[in-house]
Amino acid sequence: MSNTQPAPLPETGARGTHTDSDFLPDLCAPQAVLLLVLVAQLLALLLAVARAGLANLTWELLALVSFQVQWIVLVSAVILCRLRSRLAQWSPLQAGAVSYAAVLLVTVVFSTLGQLMMRGFFNLPLKIEPWALATNVLAAAILAGIGLRYLYLQQQLRNQQQAELHARIQALQSRIHPHFLFNSMNSIASLIAVNPEAAERAVEDLSILFRASLAEPALIPLNRELELCRGYIAIEQLRLGPRLEMDWQIEPLPDSITVPSLLLQPLVENAVVHGVEPLRAGGRISVHVARSSSMLVIHISNPLPSETQAPAPEQHNRMALDNIRQRLNAHYGTAAKLVATIEKQRFSLAITYPVE
Prior knowledge:
Blueprint: H1 30-52, H2 59-82, H3 84-87, H4 92-121, H5 130-192, H6 196-213, E1 219-221, H7 222-240, E2 244-250, E3 258-260, H8 265-276, E4 283-292, E5 295-303, H9 318-332, E6 337-343, E7 346-354
Parallel strand pairs: 2-4
Antiparallel strand pairs: 1-3, 4-5, 5-7, 6-7
Helix pairs in contact: 1-2, 2-4, 4-5, 5-6, 5-7, 5-9, 6-7, 7-8
C-alpha cells in the first residue's frame, strides 16, 4: 500500500468558497448574478411606473430606467464581490457601513453619468439636476438597506448551517473511530508474537489509516479511500490468512470522483468482523464500484454465518449503518442512498450518490 498523504483542505474565504464569518453571499456566482438581473429589472419596472404612472408608461422610459438600474446593481455586486474577503475580516458594523457606502457611491456616479449622457443625447446644457440625483440616492439608500440586510441574514444562516454540518460530520466520524481502533489493535496484537515483521508492516499500514482517520472530515478521492480499504484488508489477511478472500471489481474512474473520508473502510471492516471472521471456513467479501450515468454505485457484500439467525438488514450493525447514512445525507442530501439487503445467506450494501 502506498504511503498516501491526506489531501490538504481547500483554503476558505476565496471566491467559490466560504468561511464561517462571511458577511455576504458570493454575488459573483452565476445563480446570484441571474437573480440580481431579475430583481433589478423588476425594480426598474416599479420605478418607471412610479415616475410616469401606469397609463403614461412607455417602452423608452422603461428602457432608460432599466439601463441605469442594471448598471448600478451589477457594478455594486462586482464591488461587493471583490470586497467579500475583506468584509469577512471586519466587524458586522464596519462591513455593513462599507457595503452600504459602496452602493450609494455607485448610485451617485451612475446617476450623474446618466444625467449627463441624456442631456448630451438631446443636445441640452450639461448640468446636474440636484433633486433628481437626490431622489435616486434616497431610493438607493432605502432599497440598499433592505437588500443588504436580507443578504446579510441569508449568509449568517448559511454560515450557521455550515458550522452545524461540520460539527455533525466530526461527531459522526468520531463515533466510528473506537470500533476501528479496537479491531485494528487486536489484529496487530495477534501478529506480534508469531510474525514480528508482519506486525511491523501492519503498524505501517495502520499509521496510514490513522493519518486519514485523524484528518479533518472532508471529501477525498475515491481511489484513496479504496487504498485505505486495501490496507485494512492487508492487516486482516495477515491474521485470518486464506479464510479471508476478496473480490475487487473496481471500474476505472477519474480522480475527480470523491467520497466522504472513511466511508467505505468501516463497511469493509464490518464485513470482515461480522461476516467472515465468525465462519470457521471463512468467506469472500465482494467490493464492486462502478459509475452509472451521473451516479456512483458501490456494492459491498459478505457471507452471513449460518450458525446464527440472519438479522434483518436494519438490525445489522445499526449504529454503523446509521452513521454512514447520516454522513451521506450531510454531503449529498436525499440524492444519496444506502440500501441493505439479505439474499442467499449474504448481506449486501448498495451505496449510490451523485458525482459530477
